[in-house]
Amino acid sequence: MRHILTFIGLLFVTVVVKAQQEAWQIVPGKSIGQVKLEMPANELASLGKPDTGDAAMMKTWRIWYGRKKDGALDYASTLAVFTAMRTADTQYVKEIRVTSPRFRTPAGVGAGSTMTMIKKAYPGLRLQKVYVSKNKARRIEVYDDEKLGIAFETANARSRRPLCSMVVVHTPGEAPGSYLDYHIGFDNLLPVNP
């Protein structure tokens, strides 16, 4: 009997640990944490009310910010979900973006990882888009593996050791931002040829 209880206890711990790992996992072309591509938008209610967002023409950005220990919003830790209408009455998740370094791909990379590490983990990445501010002081580079459905953005591209600032999961075969270019905290950026 003691062996059965030990086995059940180990099984329970294994299930809990696996669920916790999946809650912070980025799966290219599929999901970030609990949010999955093509899931109905009403299922996002499990994340709570978004902190902000934008909606127009049957498309919506929902944005959640992390929380600091004192409960204040942590604008550096963002989950953004883009949904669009596919049927007459339901929006579906089309793109997921995350800036929190807690989320990681199975290869162990995410926001905060060096672009060198990311390119080694995902050799199919290609520079797809570059955005610069009017005064050229701010720059974002978007590296995408369209086949896998994952992109990585860097907001410090001019650095000798650029770091990923955002991970984007999108439908394989479609470019990130193909629905709507949106860069949280980077207003007035203009696209330029890479």
Mean pLDDT, nearest integer?
Answer: 82
Radius of gyration: 18 Å
**In which order are the strands of the major sheet placed?**
4-5-6-7-11-10-9-8-12
Portion of residues within helices: 10-25%
End-to-end gap: 65 Å
Low-confidence stretches: 9-20
Would you count the extended β strands for me? 12
Choose one word for the global shape: globular
Tell me the fraction of residues in β-strands, as a range: 35-45%
Number of domains: 1
Sheet of most strands: 9 strands, antiparallel
Number of helices: 2
The chain-level structural class is mainly beta
Give the ordered list of helices and strands. Answer: HEEEEEEEHEEEEE
Protein name: DUF4833 domain-containing protein
Organism: Chitinophaga qingshengii
Please describe the topology of this protein.
Blueprint: H1 2-23, E1 26-27, E2 31-32, E3 35-36, E4 52-56, E5 59-67, E6 73-87, E7 90-98, H2 115-121, E8 126-133, E9 139-145, E10 150-154, E11 166-170, E12 189-192
Antiparallel strand pairs: 1-2, 2-3, 4-5, 5-6, 6-7, 7-11, 8-9, 8-12, 9-10, 10-11
